[in-house]
Task: structure prediction
Amino acid sequence: MDKNKKRLSFIFVLILSVLIVPGTQADEVCDKGGCFAPEKVIGTTSVPLHGIGKATFFIFDVYTAALYFDFEGSVAAPKLFAEEPIALEIFYHRDLGRDIIINSAQDVLKKNPTFNLTKLKPRIDQISQAYEDVKAGDRYELVYHPKTGTSLLHNGELKVTIPGEDFAFAYFGIWISDWPLSQTLKKQLTTKKEMEA
Result:
């Protein structure tokens, strides 16, 4: 093999070594079928991972979610959304149509007597329109900052930002209010996960 071929072979192997990386980064936290960063930067604030939970339907795992916040007291309190950034990241285990995501969210919101759905409806419709079908392995993120509102991201791409702490309180309430989608999932998300040293 001449020098040029050897050089090309070496470059090819080098490129492969960069492209082929492990599926999980060393600093990720993995639990309940999903892996998540130990913290998120929201605005200028570093917000730690708090809890990880899994949503199931009958015997099927639908998604694993991670809740990020750094707040003493009830995570379901309106005060949280007046003062603190918070995020929810969802990793999907299976394909799911956008209509299922939208209808599930709206069904939970309707059951919560503390929300003024008439006032919230235009913003709920706005975020609903931004959802897309998901494939297994996709991620959605809800990221809230008091100064900017609630942003919806699909696989890291910003889809929409909705203003208002009242909207954030209601929409995050789908998972962490006193009338959540699942009490089991809420408990998992709001119970502080002990990180390994």
Q: What stands out?
A: The chain has a mean pLDDT of 85. The two ends are 49 Å apart (CA to CA). The longest helix spans residues 3-19. The longest strand covers residues 45-57.
